[in-house]
Design a protein that fits this description.
The complex is a heterodimer. Chain A is an alpha+beta fold. In chain A, 37% of the residues lie in helices and 15% in strands. The chains are: A alpha+beta, B mainly alpha. Chains A and B meet through helix 2 and helix 4 of A and helix 1 of B. Chain B: Belongs to the mitochondrion-specific ribosomal protein mS26 family.
Chain lengths: 163, 207
Amino acid sequence: MTPEFRLKRRRHKILLYFVQHPQDNPANIMVHLSSLLLKKYHGGYVVIRLALAGHKQANRPFYRIVAAYNKRARDGKYIEQLGSYDPLPNIYNEKLVSFNFDRIKYWIGCGAHPTKPVAKLLGLAGFFPLHPMMITEAERRRAQTELTATGAEDGLQEGQNVA
Amino acid sequence: MFQVIGGRSIQVARLLVPRSAVLVEAVRGRKSRTDPVAKSKEGRIKVPPPVDPVEMVVLKERFTEYQMMMRALRLEFKEEVLRKKYEEETGSLAEERARQEATEHRTLMAFNNQENLRMLKLRILRIQKEKEEAERKKVEAAIQCEQEQQESIKEKERDILKLQEEAKNFITLENLDQRIEEALDNPKNYNFAIDKEGRVVKQTMLQ
């Protein structure tokens, strides 16, 4: 049985909607009253992640920074939108990102987990510390460019020496 | 292993250099674990990407730092959220609001009670009036009833008297012969003629 088939089967079973407040926080701090028809997930938690928006246009991605349950589909029903991210640069060569810091603070205080790209974006924004992987990637790329630069220089020098 | 896709799908691994003109995807899980390995992958040993120990040490340090900072931030935000909630429920503003609401409630309750009293008085008056009306109507109805009874009794008496008077003209066994002779002696003619102007003619052909 392939994993996709198993997921589809499970989706058909969960069709009960409890009209009660969900206890989503691991710390069980507070109960949010955004909607009474929220699904109750066993052991589920809230994540802050990027969800793809605007599916009517191909080859034009646009992400929404969203607080949603872990088990929900990537583009499915979310709890609250906390910002947006446009991965394609605009005419001034900028990639636009927006955050609702107040609500992000609230959700992280309630026990939400941000995903890696969201953590990286927030690190670039200065709200979080810089992600270590970003720093290592930058260092690796810099080493690579230096290698190619020195390699080109050596090649030029050799060419000059030979010539 | 590869499938041709037309639209978009979740697990698309786009090939960097598509030799074919059509976009192909690698679908996970087409083969089960009992299927034999492909010929091109027979001697393949999967090797994880190489790790630079110096970089790894530096990375581990950076990660511990990062996680510590993240934990601290999380606790800070938690505290802020709790403080806000506390302020909302038991802060100074909340107390003022509660006091105001209590006073408002008291005034509204007083107003409500006054209205109730007023309505009560009006209701009592109304009920009294209705009762008097009902009494009056009952008395009137009783009088009417009595009157009707009296009238019916009088009617019946009149009928009896009339009948008694008519009884004098009845045909009995003693008058029978007399009456027959009288009837035979006086033939009555009920025929008459009338024209459009209304002139009545009682003279007809006597039989």
